[in-house]
């Protein structure tokens, strides 16, 4: 993960290692690596106990001085050595405060890297394309607030001040799922930009988002439920009420019954599902680019 950052062609960068109460201290190992690579612009933010992802990020942001921020979890990689330069130039040209790109997924089998296909989050990627965005804004809002078609935090780049202000406002409501910020963005009519390049190697099966562990899934559902309650209190938006109602049918128990319930509450899910199937059939998530793990 750190190697994929240090090897970037964009050199005016800083790295903040935000440890969230880990029982193992890797700071000396990481510092030795930075010295070896002659990378000097780094900071550590150790904490004694797990305070949750959102507060951990806020602690790290307090040490940041750059204009833009990329949050990257252990195991994930920037896609190739040009990623940061590509995204930085794109955000400067478009004046974007928030943008995301495509992802490819991989997993580890002991020491063996297993490359997989594209990781689809959001599933409806076409609506975010430049020539479609203005006419698709209402659809994007519906996709996020009702259908839960979230943009993965592993593919997002933020303007630092926007990220800090949003997370600081959310910290009493959301503990782990910082990427729920996208719901607030669409409610505030902030433009979500999409850069049509692969920006991330995403390790599946280990993080909270792709884990099959019930504890991790329950954390996500609790965050989502609390956040919807917060949004309903602060925004007059009917989609939120429907989205919150659908949350209770998102667990993996009684799968068939829950799918039927979701269709009754939001019959538009049928059209949404067909759209996703068509995009998958047409390989609209696929893009051929060479990255760090292509060897």
Core attributes:
single chain; 295 residues; two-stranded parallel ribbon; globular
Largest sheet: 6 strands, mixed
Fraction of residues in H or I helices: 40-55%
The rounded distance between the terminal residues' Cα atoms is 17 Å
Please give the count of helices.
Answer: 11
Structural class label: alpha/beta
Q: Element order, helices and strands?
A: HEHEHEEHEEHEHHEHHHH
Uncertain segments? none
Q: What's the total number of strands?
A: 8
Share of β-strand residues: 15-25%
Mean pLDDT: 89
- What is the CA-atom radius of gyration, in angstroms? 19 Å
Explain the layout of strands and helices.
Layout (H helix, E strand, L loop, with lengths): L1 H5 L8 E3 L9 H10 L5 E3 L8 H9 L6 E3 L6 E2 L4 H12 L3 E12 L2 E7 L14 H13 L10 E4 H11 L10 H7 L5 E11 L10 H21 L3 H10 L7 H11 L3 H13 L14
Helix pairs in contact: 3-6, 5-7, 8-9
């Amino acid at each position: 993960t750190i190697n994929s950052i240090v090897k970037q062609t964009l050199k005016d960068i800083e790295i903040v290692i935000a440890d969230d109460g880990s029982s193992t201290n890797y700071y000396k190992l990481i510092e030795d690596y930075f010295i070896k690579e002659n990378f000097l612009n780094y900071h550590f933010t150790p904490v004694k106990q797990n305070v949750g992802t959102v507060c951990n990020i806020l602690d790290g942001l307090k040490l940041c001085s750059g204009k833009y921020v990329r949050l990257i979890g252990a195991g994930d990689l920037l896609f190739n050595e040009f990623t940061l330069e590509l995204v930085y130039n794109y955000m400067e040209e478009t004046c974007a405060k928030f943008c995301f790109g495509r992802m490819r997924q991989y997993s580890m089998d002991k020491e063996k890297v297993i490359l997989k296909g594209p990781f689809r989050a959001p599933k409806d990627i076409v609506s975010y394309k430049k020539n479609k965005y203005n006419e698709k804004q209402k659809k994007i809002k519906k996709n996020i607030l009702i259908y839960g078609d979230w943009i993965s935090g592993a593919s997002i780049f933020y303007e630092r001040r926007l990220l800090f202000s949003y997370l600081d406002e959310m910290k009493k409501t959301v503990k782990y799922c910082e990427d729920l910020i996208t719901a607030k963005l669409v409610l505030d009519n902030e433009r979500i930009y999409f850069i049509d390049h692969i920006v991330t190697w995403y390790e599946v099966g280990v993080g909270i988002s792709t884990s099959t562990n019930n504890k991790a899934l329950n954390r996500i559902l609790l965050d989502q439920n609390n956040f919807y309650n917060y949004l309903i209190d602060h925004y007059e938006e009917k989609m939120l009420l429907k989205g919150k109602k659908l949350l209770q049918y998102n667990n993996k128990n009684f799968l068939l019954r829950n799918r039927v319930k979701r269709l009754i509450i939001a019959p538009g899910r049928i059209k949404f599902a067909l759209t996703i199937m068509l995009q998958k059939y047409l390989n609209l998530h696929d893009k051929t680019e060479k990255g760090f793990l292509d060897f």
